[in-house]
Amino acid sequence: MILRWFIFFLLIIGFNWYSSLAVKTITKHSWIYYAYLLVNLLIILNFTAQISLTNFSTYFFYSLGLVLVSIVFQISVIVFLFMEDFIRFPVWIYRIFGNGIDNSLSYMPSRRLFISQLSILLASIPASALFLGMLKGKYNYKVINHQLSFKRLPKDFNGFKIVHISDFHCGSFDNKEKLSYGIDLINKQKPDIILFTGDMVNNIADEILPWKELISSIDAPHGKYAVLGNHDYGDYKAWDSDDDKVNNLKKLIDLQKEMGFTVLKNAVEKIKINQSTIDLIGVENWGSGFKQKGDLDKALLNTNSNDFKILMSHDPTHWKEKVLTHNQHIDLTLSGHTHGMQFGIEIPGIIKWSPAKYRYKHWAGIYQELGQIINVNRGFGFLAYPGRVGIYPEITLITLKDKESLKSV
Ligand SMILES: [Fe+2]
């Protein structure tokens, strides 16, 4: 552990020193150079102090965000300086061989002002994007509309509106006004039903308390339903006893019930309009590389294979590995979990990219395979990095359409 910290600090000091060479080149004022070194050092020391407090407060996540901004800036500068040094060093060696090793340091070509200026200018772009993502991006709510047609949807459900939300991560919220706006935006969609696909908290049930009243105000005539995500089980926190952990999960479910959610744990609920019903299935978390408590077979026990089915399952890898290959046809699956890594570029119809795509095949939006559809929500909250760049908090509005409308498309 000590060795790991030693290597970490060595790297940090190395990055800081190497990137500072660009600052040294572009300014004659030595105080600017020292101020650069000092600011980066303070950012790291502040973060280390926050880690030692081990209370994962909002302030901790901001200090982590600043470390990200600082390191992304430094690495971007270093890429340019390294390319320059790739040329400088062979020239230096060549001159030493040509002129002898006396005064060898004076043979080193000096840094180009232009390269250092360019490196700082270009490094400022991703660093400022990450900084702005913390100030604005994380509350930049987007309503994403999907009209989805299904062959076996009962006619009575034609036009049924689902608001799909996911990944609140209550412990990360830090602005009541902005959150109120997001909650209001959910209600403004006038959904028939609200489906929340897990990760209500980061670690502990009490994270809900400051926002309980606000979240309770989410409302729809056919009710609101929730499933558990990997973060809801308290697996990422050290507990004093096993009982504490069990009680925390119980409290989390109780609080969700008090807020008006029906929590589906490997269970099914029949949603009824007139004489028609559809199956709303909710499973516990099942993720590749994560907790696998989701039991689709158990949840499907009291269902009729001919009925239209919506499945709520936190992790989209469940769809790929268990749902698609299941003998029962699940018409629509709703998931979250990926957050689209809170970073990427999306221009509809032109580009859709995030590092999340290298970890998850289905990482954001609608996918269709074997006649079944999944919507992967990008998440309503944020985790770890307290910001979002390019991949914004999402409220999905899904309108179900029956086979008649399918014909008319
Ligand atoms: Fe999450």
Instruction: Give the class-level CATH name of the largest domain.
Output: Alpha Beta
Count, helices: 10
List SSEs in N-to-C order: HHHHEEHEHEHEEEHEHEEEEEEH
What is the rounded distance between the termini? Answer: 61 Å
Derived from helix and strand composition plus strand pairing, the structural class reads alpha/beta
CATH topology of the largest domain: Purple Acid Phosphatase, chain A, domain 2
Mean pLDDT: 92
The biggest beta sheet is recorded as: 6 strands, mixed
Uncertain runs = none
CATH architecture of the largest domain: 4-Layer Sandwich
Strand arrangement, largest sheet?
1-14-2-3-4-5
Give a verbal description of the structure.
This protein is an alpha/beta fold and 409 residues long. The protein folds into two domains: 2-135, no CATH class; 139-408, Purple Acid Phosphatase, chain A, domain 2. It has helices at 2-26, 30-53, 58-99, 113-135, 176-188, 212-216, 242-258, 296-299, 316-323, 403-408; strands at 142-149, 161-165, 193-196, 224-226, 261-263, 267-273, 276-282, 309-312, 332-335, 345-347, 351-353, 365-369, 372-376, 394-401. Strands 1-14-2-3-4-5 form a six-stranded mixed sheet. Strand 12 and strand 13 form a beta hairpin. Helix 1 (2-26) packs antiparallel against helix 2 (30-53), helix 2 (30-53) crosses helix 3 (58-99) and helix 3 runs antiparallel to helix 4. The longest helix is centred in the first third of the chain and has 42 residues, at 58-99. It is elongated. The model has no long low-confidence stretch (mean pLDDT 92). Bound molecules: fe (ii) ion.
